[in-house]
Amino acid sequence: MRTKRIQKARRSVGTRGVGAMSFLLAMATLAACAGTPPLPQTRSVITLTGERVQADPEAMVEVDRWLRPQLAEIERNPDLVRVLQEDRPLYPWQTFEILDGTAQLTVQRGQGDAETPFRLYAHFRLMAETGELARWLPEAVPETEDGRAGPAAEGLELERLILRRISDVWLLGRSVFDTTPYGPLDELLYSNEAGFLDEFILTTQRERFEEEATAHFEANPDRAEAFRAWFMRVFERPGPGFMDGAADEPGAEPADEPGAGPAADPMAAVPDVRLG
């Protein structure tokens, strides 16, 4: 399975794409030496259905502050993260794996702006595996009262912390650098901003977090229906639309046109959840 996917994918070599986030990646090392200019003014991010997210300018400055050193680290050490390309839309975690000390994942061909958040996701996961996460995600390794590093976050807790950062980076790109919309990352961004990050994770990664999904929806029986109704209002489909095979279901919309029409219901497969 792994060999087949690598054969179908093409490694991204030489170029990083043509988007503003890709430019950020290329210029990160220079920014570390020359200082960072003020960010452009933020603007609202709006879906086709009119759902609006307004970025906080001070929050975006903070995201930019921690983002640039991490991008510079990835740029200086190209063996940390390897990016492959395929024609289909993907979430960052769908193809993620660590091979011989290198984090590898696949991004949709032609989506240069999405490559930066994908690289960051892979880097966070790799740093968690190597025990170096405290430098890049300090909230995942809180200090104890005596100043020592406490137990590192793992499992769903770690994924939540990582995806909050990825969502913030994508909001920075969309609201400040005018990056091109990308369905999988837009879903993450809006879910996070609307308070549905856990539901989004447990729906799109239910095989990985099956026990957590069951426990969450049993303890919060109204959240599945609330998430479904919210997703239908914002994206005009009942749940995340880019899981494996979702675009091939009868009646599903084209994967590169989020919010364009009805799709199969991914929430129907959430463990032990009644949707009415």
Distance between the termini: 37 Å
Q: Can you tell me the number of structural domains? A: 2
Q: Which strand-content bin applies to the residues?
A: 5-15%
Rg value: 19 Å
Strand order of the largest sheet: 1-4-6-5
Topology diagram in text:
Blueprint: H1 2-8, E1 10-11, H2 20-34, E2 45-46, E3 52-53, H3 57-76, E4 81-86, E5 97-99, E6 102-108, H4 112-130, H5 133-136, H6 155-176, H7 183-193, H8 197-204, H9 210-219, H10 223-235
Structure summarized in a few sentences:
The chain has 10 helices and 6 strands, in the order αβαββαβββααααααα. It has about 280 residues and is an alpha+beta fold. It has 2 domains: about 1-165, no CATH class; about 195-275, no CATH class.
Keywords:
276 residues, alpha+beta, 2 domains, disordered C terminus
Please provide a written account of the structure.
The chain is an alpha+beta fold and 276 residues long. The protein folds into two domains: 2-163, no CATH class; 194-276, no CATH class. Helices cover 47% and strands 8% of the residues. The chain has ten helices and six strands; from the N terminus they run αβαββαβββααααααα. It has helices at residues 2-8, 20-34, 57-76, 112-130, 133-136, 155-176, 183-193, 197-204, 210-219, 223-235, and strands at residues 10-11, 45-46, 52-53, 81-86, 97-99, 102-108. A four-stranded mixed beta sheet has the order 1-4-6-5. It has a two-stranded antiparallel sheet with strand order 2-3. Strand 2 and strand 3 (52-53) form a beta hairpin. Helix 3 crosses helix 6 and helix 4 packs antiparallel against helix 6 (155-176). The model is unreliable at 1-18, 245-263 and 271-276 (pLDDT under 50).
